[in-house]
Amino acid sequence: MDIKAIRKERESWLQWKNIAPLRRMLAALPQVEAQVELGDVVRIEAEVSEEVRRQVRETAWAMRPWRKGPFEVLGTYIDSEWKSFIKYNLLEPFMDLEGKDVADIGCNNGYYMFRMLSQRPKSLTGFDPSPIFRTQFDFIDHFVRSGITFELLGVEHLPLYGKRFDTIFCLGVIYHRSDPIAMLKWLKQGLKEGGEVFLDTFYIEGEEPVALCPGVSYSKIKNVHFVPTIAALHNWCEKAGFGHFEVLSTKPTTFEEQRKTEWIEGQSLEDFLDPEDPSKTIEGYPAPKRVYVRLRRK
User: Fold this and answer.
1) In terms of domains, do 217 and 166 share one?
2) In terms of domains, do 226 and 147 share one?
3) Can you give the residue range of the structural domain that contains 252?
4) Position 194 in a domain
5) What's 169-230 look like in SS3?
6) How many domains are there within the chain?
7) Which of 96, 157, 199, 269 sits at 20 to 30 Å (Cα–Cα) from 280?
8) What is residue 61's predicted lDDT score, i.e. its pLDDT?
9) For 76-112, what is each residue's pLDDT tens digit?
10) Structure pTM?
11) Which pLDDT does position 1 carry in this prediction?
């Protein structure tokens, strides 16, 4: 199946019975001239009636859960599960996106891409196969009018996509893939010569190039396949053909960064850790820590 056929088939996902009502709410929103602030909170404001503000809040509320953010839209503060500016602000000093073709793989609702607009990239393309995240993105972009392209595609579609990128962000994706080296090869195929990848993943401490292979779940996440040491991650990247591996930062996931709010449904970090020993997950594994790396093609 070629990329056009895949794209067409996935666009039909927006008519799923749980998504179609949200799309109708989105289509009913009025067009307004908005002022946009691209800070830690992506803030959108405009002179509108109280009725429009109520409509915006009801639409945003119906689109829960909001994982990435925060956003403030015409007075409605969307207090997302993740304070995503913590990760973005950690990476921003290493970014140079002006005039470049940039992709965000696993982009969720596009928070990071909205933040990247201030660096004036040539193009921004998000990949995420989730219809709810696409709908959240379209809700925010209804007011921002960013020109960002959002594709209902995954990392596996990069080699088929027909466009190569100067910079690819792939944050919090690799541990969801059962073949991490294959995923890294797809990322490499999506790069222009001299291109770079910003990658983050869970990791475990240790000098040996080994990886934890969780059982049913890791931190109550069922589709975590491998949690490597940094040495193992380095080896994966070399096997995939990356000649440059630079550790930018490491940090534990904290309750400041990830927590339960009224804008999500279900559990969050506090429920994923051992209540008697928060240095461990509820399953008894080391609690989540992340390593942030920059890769370049050989």
Assistant:
1) no
2) no
3) 200-298
4) no
5) EEECCHHHCCCHHHHHHHHHHCEEEEEEEEEEEECCCCCCCCEECCCCCECCECCCCCEECH
6) 2
7) 199
8) 98
9) 999 999 999 999 999 999 999 999 999 999 999 999 9
10) 0.97
11) 72
